[in-house]
Amino acid sequence: MAEMIGELVALILMAVALGMDAFSVGLGMGMYQLRLRKIFQIGIMIGIFHVLMPLFGITAGKFLSEKFGTFATFIGGALLIVLGIQMIWSSLKKEEEKIITPIGFGLIFFALSVSLDSFSVGLSLGIFGARTMLVLICFGIMATIQTWAGLLLGRKVRHWIGCYSEALGGGILLAFGFKLITVFW
């Protein structure tokens, strides 16, 4: 029993650490003018991806090398950079045309970019034989809660800084993407 509690505590801490990027990215994305219903949907979608990606990672962890996990982090960073640049670019334009928005395919793209690091962690956990259901529950719940917190805080900050909020949000995504890419090198 003590072993399972120890594993649960470790997984919760890992889920919080992985959810911090969902929080950070949610903070940036929350600076879009989002309704509460959309915030709810984004949190659920990111939670689902934080269940699917580690599941795929755990499954593949027995078969793939450590290099692939690092490559997944690089891809996630590149996707966040694209999202950040797009947000900054659209804040500088007068028109309301956006290339990527958290709707439809844009939401899936956004959730995937935030969840790729959980795939990498899933690879490691698959190699070490972690309890799959425990991992998925912890990762999914924490990512959802932290995404909602980031989106709601970003929504509040948007009202404080007005028209510059989207550029700031893009800057946050851009910085986080560069942070992930520098880990790759």
UniProtKB/TrEMBL annotation:
Molecular function GO terms recorded: manganese ion transmembrane transporter activity
Record's keyword annotation contains Protease: no
Cell compartments where the protein resides: Cell membrane
Top-level taxon: Bacteria
Topology in membrane: Multi-pass membrane protein
Any one GO CC term of the record: plasma membrane
Keyword annotations of the record: Cell membrane, Ion transport, Manganese, Membrane, Transmembrane, Transmembrane helix, Transport
Record field: transmembrane: 6-27, 39-59, 71-92, 104-128, 134-154, 161-184
A Pfam cross-reference name: Mntp
PANTHER family: MANGANESE EFFLUX PUMP MNTP-RELATED
Function recorded in the entry: Probably functions as a manganese efflux pump.
Family designation: Belongs to the MntP (TC 9.B.29) family.
Protein name per Swiss-Prot or TrEMBL: Putative manganese efflux pump MntP
Species whose genome carries this gene: Neobacillus thermocopriae
